[in-house]
Write a structure and sequence with these properties.
10 strands, binds flavin-adenine dinucleotide, alpha+beta, 12 helices, about 375 residues
């Protein structure tokens, strides 16, 4: 087990970093951008990431997990951008896992020229969970909080059938598919997230796959989303720690830089410790998923909880160090502080992740 960046990760990471530096203005403007501008920024960054060698069609089996560390420069640059690119990859990976990604569409994903989304979550207490019925198949129901919803070309949609679960590939242009307006959120607001209405959507037989074999499409997507969110949290911590350090080194009180005051120094030390621990745990979980190891699901949830809560701690520590300046809207620290809260419940919430860890612990350890 060696978590040092390998040659490929270092090379691809350097290209991703350089491509993003050239697009820093567009990435910073995402919070205020409209859906059209978001889509063109996303397509541009996807093409750059794909050109650097990241496989946005997910590769074979669990190969996608290894690429997450390679994308850390993207997570460090912008949490929203990393999650938007990841939603495209997650869509392709999930479709491919059930034979729903034909070669021409896979090639488009590999070029980064198509925006994907996964519609799995449903409103609580929903009267009408997304369901498939009849032959030919008809899809109906509502989905909630779909990342890339208003700007996607293709959706991977989980649905119920009388026999169990199914996965569908649905084009955004299909009659009956309506993505709602972009939801205004407190954090992660460089993302285009919306609800989705499916009313009487005809789905061809080659666009549906039986989802009953383990892992189910929902479980597979949850694992991918939780590992992705862990890396998003690590990137956020690395970014906000740099911002706090720069502030602490340059801001003087009592005749010296505040970094030289022990109370502030201890805070920075704690933030660095949590950030390193989170990165190690996320990398170990990704390594285990890539190997299809038996502990993978439990480790991913351990990383999910530690990284999400670590991001909240580190972002809050950075805000405390930057104090008044950090509290002014529009700086990287306050943005990270808002984003960190969203990372604790987008995907498996930290509460439900803890329950899953406890189950895994009873079974295996
Ligand atoms: C920014 C963002 C992007 C998202 N993108 C996508 C996407 O692309 N695709 C998609 O399918 N979904 C997406 N989601 C949805 C996301 O997966 C859900 O928000 C998440 O699963 C939590 O669901 P919920 O908000 O309905 O909360 P709920 O499930 O209603 O939970 C509410 C509270 O109850 C607790 N709780 C729930 N169940 C239990 C339990 N069994 N035991 C103990 N406590 C429990 C939770 O921990 C939480 O504190 C996104 C969400 C956000 C915020």
């Amino acid at each position: 087990m060696d978590f040092e960046p390998g040659k490929r990760e270092a090379e691809v990471g350097a290209i991703v970093e350089a491509e993003l530096a050239a697009r820093a203005d567009a990435a910073n403007a995402m919070e205020a951008a409209d859906a059209g501008a978001l889509r063109s920024t996303l397509l541009d960054v996807q093409a750059a990431v794909a050109g650097a060698g990241v496989d946005l069609a997910g590769g074979e089996g669990t190969a996608w997990a290894a690429d997450l560390a390679t994308c850390l420069p993207l997570a460090r640059a912008s949490t929203s951008l990393f999650l938007a690119v990841s939603a495209t990859r997650q869509c392709a990976t999930l479709l491919a896992s059930r034979g729903l990604l034909p070669a021409p569409l896979a090639a488009e994903f590999r070029r980064g020229s198509v925006v994907g989304a996964v519609a799995s979550s449903e409103p609580a207490g929903t009267e009408a969970p997304a369901s498939l019925s009849g032959t030919p198949w008809t899809l109906a129901g509502r989905k909630s909080f779909v990342t890339n919803g208003p700007i996607a070309d293709v959706f991977a949609v989980t649905a119920r059938t009388p026999e169990g679960e199914a996965l569908c590939r649905v084009a955004a242009s299909r009659p009956g598919v309506t993505a709602g307006a972009r939801i205004a959120t407190v954090g992660l607001n460089g993302l285009a997230v919306s609800d989705m209405d499916l009313s009487g959507v005809d789905v061809d037989v080659d666009q549906v796959a039986d989802g009953r074999a383990e892992p189910s499409p929902r479980a597979r997507y949850a694992l991918d989303a939780d590992l992705t969110l862990s890396f998003a949290a690590v990137g956020l911590m690395q970014r906000v720690l740099q911002a706090a350090k720069a502030h602490a080194a340059g801001h003087k009180r009592g005749g010296r830089a505040i970094a030289k005051h022990q109370e502030v120094g201890f805070k920075l030390a704690e933030m660095l410790t949590v950030t390193h621990a989170a990165e190690l745990l996320a990398r170990r979980a990704a390594w285990m998923v890539a190997l299809s190891g038996p502990e993978a699901a439990t480790l991913v949830r351990c990383a999910r909880v530690f990284c999400a809560e670590g991001a909240e701690r580190v972002a809050s520590g950075a805000m405390q160090v930057a104090a008044g300046e950090g509290f002014v809207a529009g700086n990287p620290i306050e943005r990270a502080w808002r984003d960190a809260k969203g990372l604790a419940f987008a995907g498996t919430t930290v509460e439900v992740a803890r329950l899953s860890i406890a189950d895994g612990l009873l079974e295996r350890y």
